[in-house]
TrEMBL record:
The protein's name in its UniProt record: Uncharacterized protein
Amino acid sequence: MTDKAQIAEQARTISALWHRMERARKRIEVQQGMIVWLQARVSELEAQQTPEARIAALFKEAGE
């Protein structure tokens, strides 16, 4: 293989790897957003289960 052919092949390989890395990065960003939302939702649900929150919900139901 000539030097030029080897360089061209390496350039194709690097380009393919770079594109694969970019697709993975975009997927990671989407998944990270989902994780952040899920963590916030879990915190919200846990907050609803504290004794204070449960009592407040009972009073709210009784007032309706």
